[in-house]
Hints:
A: mainly alpha, globular, disordered C terminus, B: 2 domains, binds adenosine-5'-triphosphate, binds magnesium ion, cell membrane (chain A)
Amino acid sequence: MSKVKDTAISIAFFAFTMGAWELSTRAFNVPSYVLPPPSAIAMALYRGLSSGLYIRHLGFTLQATLTGFVLGSILGIVLGALVASYRYFEMLVYPYIIMFKSMPKVALAPLFVLWLGLGIWSKIVSAAILCFFPLMINTIAGLRSADEDRISLMKSLGASRFQIFLHLRLPSALPFIMAGLELAVVLSLIGTIVAEFVGARAGLGTLIQNMSSNMDGAGQFSVLVLLSAIGLTMNYAVRRLKKWVLFWDPSTRTDESGASI
Amino acid sequence: MAIEHSGGPAGASGASAISIKGLLKRYKAAGREDILALDRTDIELAEGEFVALVGPSGCGKSTLLKILAGIQPPSEGEALIKGERLTGPRPDVGVVLQSPVLFPWRTILKNVMLPVDVLRLDKRRYRSVALELLKLVQLEGFEGRYPRELSGGMQQRVAIARSLINDPSLLLMDEPFGALDAMTRERMNAELQRIWMERRKTVLLITHSIPEAVFLADRVLVMSPRPGRIIEDIRVDLERPRPMSIMGSADFARYVGHLRGLLHAEGGIDG
Lengths: 261, 271
Ligand SMILES: Nc1ncnc2c1ncn2[C@@H]1O[C@H](COP(=O)(O)OP(=O)(O)OP(=O)(O)O)[C@@H](O)[C@H]1O
Ligand SMILES: [Mg+2]
């Protein structure tokens, strides 16, 4: 009952905000390239989607984002596992990790475009690099978080290092890895868009830039709406995955509100 | 009845299940003095014997157990299990720790089956053994549940079932009931006695509870404060099976009183 009421109030509040936005942009004659009224944004969105223009660019951006997300995450998990498992490997690569960790990785996007061209690979690599770090760092922390008593128990059974990894460390790391994926899913979209800004033949980032130079405010806003829809969908998918993978972790059942950055 | 000092192990066969000679453990601490946790300890356990080990906190009981479980190497001395020199973990030694140490992502059945997975035994065959053990610890019907759905006492019983799955002849228990309330603890004591009488394993039980030690053990070993050494070895001559009511008897009280006196003279026991 109160849930229905809450929903009704939410919808009313949304309608009120949109109405106020619409009226004030008209009342104060705000130029559309500065802040378009919601009705214009909705129109632009409708036109872009129905003409197929947005779908084509969306396809490109989505492909780069998802590929980058998957590649970067896998690489991060594998490298994290190597660092956590082999002291020698850790000694070799740790200085680089420290160096790259605090660098704003989006600043590398121009280099990727220079090296890999205007095609999809510079976007994939840019997205992958951003996903890589949270996953590697969380995987290392997760694998090391395995409970001391559980390690002792495994040892008392004569478990090999690999068995301890498989039966204990990896499952213990899953909550950390899932948290890393939640971060990475947002970062991969950022990585793709930034690389598209630098230079691309297609993609939603390119579209925004073209619209910006044409002073098409409503168009830009409509693409932003599309981008948040992608972000929300991917975030939802990862949260579902997390719930499914971490069914045994009581802490995942309480943080439904979801993490975002 | 006089309290007897045990002349060492006594069992049906008289053969040694555990024989510890001059065992010493030093923990190295960087930049600080080494900690001598265990000082040239000698212990003999006969096969099938139930021995309890009591001593003040920090005296080296868990250290001793970890050495016997093959989790840590000793610094000096040696331990023989069934006459063989101990070099690492052995499949015929089962371990139960203070906390149940279950794996939350495994069902109760799969938790009990963990040693089967690690030792690469026949899963199909041991599945029925696991179900039987769950019946033994009175957790029939819980095999598909997850640890978080069980109470602390139930989880501890799962840990006991797990330690029995590959039928180890030797059971090492480190304060297995320490985290339980008094009522549950007494019930678990009765259950452990029943399991032991049914399965006839050699048991070394570390406990902070003197009544628990007297109720369960054939012999109670008393350790000195750190660095730990065995300072007393007392035979408990109470008939088996011991009913819960025995805890109210005069004989029981005398054993408890004697041990308590010893431990207080040695600097106390907590709990
Ligand atoms: N891994 C370790 N590294 C360094 N010192 C340790 C380690 N484990 C134990 N110690 C030290 O060795 C001594 C004996 O510890 P141990 O855990 O064996 O005691 P305990 O008899 O089991 O105590 P309690 O009854 O409180 O469990 C303690 O002083 C402890 O500080
Ligand atoms: Mg201890």
